[in-house]
Amino acid sequence: MAMPKVLKVHGLDLSYFTGKLEAYLRGKQIPYELIEMDTGDFKRCGKATGVAQMPQVEWLDGQWLSDTTLIIEFLETLKPETSIMPENATIRFLAQLLEDFGDEWLWRPALYYRWAHAQDARLMSHRLADGMMRDVPLPFFMRRWAILNRQRLHFLWLDGVRKSTAKRVEAHYLETLDALETVLEKQPFVLGQRPTLADYGLYGSMFRHFFCDPTPARIMRTRAPAVHEWVARLWNTKLADHNNAPLTTQWPVKLTPLLNIIGTEFLPYMQANELAIEQGARQFKFSSQGVQFKIPTQRYRAWRYQRLRNRYQALELSTQQEINACFPELGTALSKPVTCPIEARIKGLPITTPTTMTSRTW
């Protein structure tokens, strides 16, 4: 399939998933133009793809790409010579797991730090009022008030953030930061000497939120300088320069603190969400180290969890056994067959996205 000479990426330069996609395109040296969305463009893109989210990519002949995970998978097939997928089956699956974790677990603390802290909220509400809402015919102060209240409603109150849970949400960032620091102070990228899907999966939150927003950025600079350096390094990395650099082929012991978070927090969270959806519930309870959350169900996350299980179960038995020997919780969580599959709506795009599931926007 032919690729446009320049991709038109509709998004924002403060957006979690726009940043993830931009870093990948820069690394892949795929020319692109970032078209800064306003509300009209956001609606136009949503009408074209059937999903209100960013980024969205205009393709050839009126076709569109949506969902950064699927966009990256699609572009990997078109430009495989600088692949970010590890050749080793065990390490490749680990990279896919880390992308799911980066996308679906770090979302809550990333949005929390942006909208729960006064300095960060003032800055970002100003930027969105001046950018995303620039086409809304209201005075600036009203646009800023509207965006601030909208974001705090959706990404704090409706996402389970209360006084009783706030410190635990902060800890989700701090624990992940500490775990990544132990890896990146010893090697330039998450799985070795060259970037993989694991790096780009963790990048959305770490770049556009934790690296750029004032409060988490201060924490990162002082608490995890190697992570801070990795963020800048990945933005400036050309994948072609690292084609022959080695990746680990053995189970990475240095990742144990991060995998412990995945085993004790992320996978139980994904399981609870899927079970609630199967039972027809609109909310579910989740306990994080004794702190109780009440959170809306997310069909998109259930789809991601089911896809991860299908991938694990499709691995050769020897690969599964290797994973289970090093990370028993993973085998336990992923060996359950998918009995109630959550399907994506197909819209005839070059790649398809679960358009009825996602709630992710900015």
Description:
About 4% of the residues have low confidence. A hairpin with a 5-residue loop joins strand 3 and strand 4. With 362 residues, this protein is of the alpha+beta class. It is built from 15 helices and 6 strands. Strands 2-1-3-4 form a 4-stranded mixed sheet, sandwiched between helices. The chain has a two-stranded antiparallel ribbon with strand order 5-6. The protein is globular and about 60 Å long. Helix 12 crosses helix 13. The two termini are 30 Å apart.
Give the % helix: 55-70%
| Unreliable runs | 345-359
Beta-strand content:
5-15%
Give the SSE order as H and E letters.
EHEHEEHHHHHHHHHHEEHHH
**How many H/I helical runs?**
15
The whole-angstrom Rg is 20 Å
Total beta-strand segments: 6
Mean pLDDT: 93
| Order of strands, widest sheet | 2-1-3-4
Question: What attributes does this structure have?
Answer:
362 residues; alpha+beta; 4-stranded mixed beta sheet; two-stranded antiparallel ribbon; 15 helices; 6 strands; 56% helix
